[in-house]
């Protein structure tokens, strides 16, 4: 039985969080479609996609800090009735998303030599570069979508983002079927076909989201696109200072998983394919907590804008409870149905499939172990972003993932000979360390009154 004190917070969290969860899952489903369909196409292509998307996502994580960072700023500004701040921060976040995308393109164009230098198989590196030379152009669409997502979520209008991303899923599946396998008279393009399908869908989604943000009656008085070409240097510096630590935090966390991908590639192509499947299943469940974390950022940001310490506490407690329930459900799925989940990704007639299913099913055991700590670290980050505290969380993330997670993973996998399971135990260690320190920081700051007495230090 939910007390009357928490019931309004639960309703508000679910009303805001569930569409955000749906949006993240729909976006993730597009990546799953690529993985599944390239898994049917070939093991080398699947391994190439795993490593290519790791490369892509490091650059995406670095740029996404600007779009994520303004969510709490916009929510607090709306709560204060500051229309100018809403427009300025959202507009400069879009500018920084565009700039970040342009800077990242040369790295993706020349990804092949970089992947070879970090020990990837030549065939995998070549296929990954083919993918990235096309898919890299979609980064600008993804980052701008993320900023608009924050803009709309802060106004408690996340539903349209859900419908836009859902609409992209059947389209990308159809385009993959046509372009990867060469159906309907089109040439068979493999990984290049998957990349072309992805950018077509990404730019269509961005166009619809831009149109909606311009049309939405509740947003018209913010005049987001009026004189969009005109720079606002002081606000850009503010958004940059807030967003860069978030991006680096995301890179630190993403780098933990990318590092595990690279090290798994050292072990073997089959192991990398199995690891990619298990990691993507874990990423799907992570999207549940990421959506709730985004809702937490808005709820905490609103309370901060009102100076409402009790509302902040009750919102945080409610979000944690929701995330724990979701984590327990995910643990049950991974521990009870691992082979069934993994089998969805592979052609059962392929001779390498049984070995990959066995390996990936074993790795899902470890994915189940870190569900709760992974949930708590991203929820804590959502709280801290709501109070615009980003620099210390960046340091915590770097220490947790690169001083704890990566060394533990390498030591167990290679020095002690544990193999793939050792890499995943390193993930568990890094995520658990981060969850404890980030939650501690939020609640200690709350107890001291840091988050409501005065603006937090960016």
From TrEMBL:
* Cellular compartments annotated: Cell inner membrane
What is any one GO biological process for this UniProt entry?
A: monoatomic ion transport
Q: How does it sit in the membrane?
A: Multi-pass membrane protein
Record-level Gene Ontology MF annotations: antiporter activity; xenobiotic transmembrane transporter activity
Pfam families linked: MatE (PF01554)
Q: Transmembrane residues, as ranges?
A: 47-80, 92-111, 131-148, 160-182, 194-218, 239-260, 272-294, 315-334, 354-373, 394-415, 421-439
One annotated Gene Ontology cellular component of this protein: plasma membrane
Task: Cite the entry's keywords alphabetically.
Answer: Antiport, Cell membrane, Ion transport, Membrane, Transmembrane, Transmembrane helix, Transport
This chain belongs to the protein called Multidrug-efflux transporter
Question: Highest lineage ranks of the organism?
Answer: Bacteria, Pseudomonadati, Pseudomonadota, Alphaproteobacteria, Rhodobacterales
């Amino acid at each position: 039985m939910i007390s009357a004190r928490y019931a309004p917070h639960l309703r508000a969290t679910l009303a805001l969080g569930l569409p955000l969860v749906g949006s993240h899952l729909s976006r993730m489903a597009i990546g799953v479609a690529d993985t599944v369909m390239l898994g049917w196409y070939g093991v080398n292509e699947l391994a190439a996609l795993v490593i290519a998307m790791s490369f892509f996502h490091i650059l995406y994580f670095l740029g996404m800090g600007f779009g994520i960072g303004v969510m709490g700023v916009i929510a607090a500004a709306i709560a204060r009735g500051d229309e100018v701040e809403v427009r300025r921060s959202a507009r400069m976040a879009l500018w920084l998303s565009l700039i970040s995308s342009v800077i990242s393109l040369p790295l993706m164009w020349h990804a092949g030599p970089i992947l070879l230098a970090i020990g990837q198989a030549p065939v995998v590196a070549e296929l990954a570069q083919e993918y990235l030379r096309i898919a890299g152009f979609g980064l600008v669409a993804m980052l701008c979508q993320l900023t608009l997502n924050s803009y709309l979520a802060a106004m408690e209008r996340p539903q349209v983002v859900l419908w836009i991303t859902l609409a992209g899923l059947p389209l990308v599946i159809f385009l993959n079927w046509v372009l990867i396998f060469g159906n309907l008279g089109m040439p068979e393009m493999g990984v290049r076909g998957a990349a072309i399908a992805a950018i077509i869908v990404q730019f269509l989604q961005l166009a619809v989201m831009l149109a909606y943000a311009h049309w939405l009656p509740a947003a018209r008085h913010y005049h987001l696109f009026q004189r969009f070409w005109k720079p606002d240097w002081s606000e850009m510096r503010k958004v940059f200072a807030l967003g860069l630590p978030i991006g680096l935090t995301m890179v630190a966390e993403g780098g933990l998983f990318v590092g595990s991908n690279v090290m798994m590639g050292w072990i073997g192509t089959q192991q990398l394919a199995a690891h990619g499947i298990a990691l993507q299943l874990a990423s799907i469940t992570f999207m549940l907590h990421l959506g709730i974390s985004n809702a937490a950022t808005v709820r905490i940001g609103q309370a901060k804008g009102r100076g409402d310490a009790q509302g902040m506490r009750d919102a945080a407690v409610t979000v944690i409870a929701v995330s724990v329930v979701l984590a327990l459900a995910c643990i049950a799925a991974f521990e009870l149905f691992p082979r069934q989940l993994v089998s969805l990704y592979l052609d059962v007639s392929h001779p390498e499939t049984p070995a990959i299913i066995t390996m990936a099913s074993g790795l899902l055991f470890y994915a189940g172990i870190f569900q709760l700590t992974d949930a708590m670290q991203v929820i804590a980050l959502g709280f801290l972003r709501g109070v615009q505290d980003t620099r210390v969380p960046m340091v915590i993330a770097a220490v947790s993932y690169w001083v704890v997670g990566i060394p533990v993973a390498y030591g167990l996998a290679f020095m002690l000979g544990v193999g793939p399971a050792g890499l995943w135990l390193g993930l568990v260690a890094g995520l658990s360390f981060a969850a404890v320190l980030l939650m501690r920081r939020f609640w200690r700051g709350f107890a001291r009154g840091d988050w409501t007495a005065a603006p937090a230090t960016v």
